[in-house]
Amino acid sequence: MRMRFGVLGLAVTLLCGSAFAAQAQRVHVLIIIGLAGEPQYRARFLEAAATLADTARTRWGVADSSLIVLGEDPAQDPKHIKGKATKEEVAAAFVRLSHRVAPGDIVLVFLNGHGAGEGPTSRVNLPGPDPTAADFATWIAGFTRQTVVFVNAASGSGDFVPVLAGRGRLIVSATKTAIERNETVFAKPFIRALTTAEADADKDGRISVYEAFDYAKKEVDRLYEVDNKMLTEHAVLSDTAMARTVAFGGKSGSSDPRVIALVAERQDLESQVAALRSRKATTDSTTYEHELERLLLLVAEKTQAIRAVGSKP
Question: What is the pTM for the complete model shown?
Fold first, then answer.
C-alpha cells in the first residue's frame, strides 16, 4: 500500500521548513568573492561575506578548518579572507573540503560578484581565468554523500541552476537567466535571512534554505518597488521541497515556553522519522509507509501548532 498522495501532500505543505537533521550533521562553508570593479560593490561583497562567515563560526559551529573565504585581495579583510579567489585556489578549496566532509554533512557554497556568459560557460569574474558553471559542476560532483547548497548571488547567474542541479543539491541563483545582467541586490537579504531570526517562520531557531530564499525574494521585490524600478532580477531555487528540509542554526528562536515545548516535541518526532528511514531496508513496506505517514502528520501538526502560537499576541 502506498502512502496516500493527499495526506503526504498535506504533511509536506505543513512542514514548511522543518528540517530532519541528524545531530552528527556538520556544516562546511566556502565563500567566494568575485572582482568588485567599483568601491561600492567591493564594500557590499565584503560585508556579505564577513556576515556569513561570522555566523557560520559563532552560531552554526563551523570549524575554522571547514570555513574557507576567498576574495579579490586578502588584504581587504585579513580577518576573514584567507586566500585569493583564483580558479586554482577555488579548486583547491573544494579538494580541502572533500577531506573534511562526512556522509550526511552540508556543504554551503556562496558565490558573489559580477557574472556573464551562458549555459555551461556562465561564470563569475574572479582574479585571473574565470571558472565556469561547468567547472563548478565538476568540483561539486565528488560530494555525492553530502547535501550541497550552492548559492550564486551574482548578476547573470541563472544558467548555473540547470548546469549544477542534481540529486542531493540545492542551487540558488539571484537571476532567472544569464540575460539578467544588471547588478543584483539578492545577496544582502538572503544573507540577512540566513544570519538573523527574521526569516524563521516556524520559530525553531533554524533557517531553512526555503525560508531564506522566500524571504530574500520578497525583500528584493519590495526594494525594487520602493525605488520605483522595473524588476530586473528573478531569483531561482532548484528544488522547493528539498529546500524545506535543509536548514542552518540551532535552538528555538522563541522565548515563549509554549513554542519551546512544541519545538522540542517536533524535534523528537523528527528523530523518530530519521530512525525509521534508516530502517527502511529491513522494514515491511506497508508497515514502513503507515508509520512514516503517521509521523509526518504528527510533525506537520506540531509545525501548525507552533505557527498558531506564534501568531497570537
Answer: 0.78
Q: Which three cell numbers stand for residue 288?
A: 514502513
- What span, in angstroms and rounded, lies between the C-alpha atoms of 232 and 226? 14
Architecture of domain 27-249: 3-Layer(aba) Sandwich (3.40)
Q: Does 1 score more than 90 pLDDT?
A: no
* 23-27 own/partner pairs: CB under 8 Å, 24+ apart: 24/102, 24/104, 25/104, 25/105, 25/106, 26/61, 26/62, 26/63, 26/66, 26/101, 26/102, 26/105, 26/106, 27/56, 27/60, 27/61, 27/62, 27/66, 27/105, 27/106, 27/107, 27/108, 27/248
**In terms of C-beta density within 10 A (0-12 exposed, 13-18 middle, 19 or more buried), how is residue 2 classed?**
exposed
Cell match 571558472: residue?
A: 131
Average the pLDDT over 19-34 and give the result.
Answer: 74
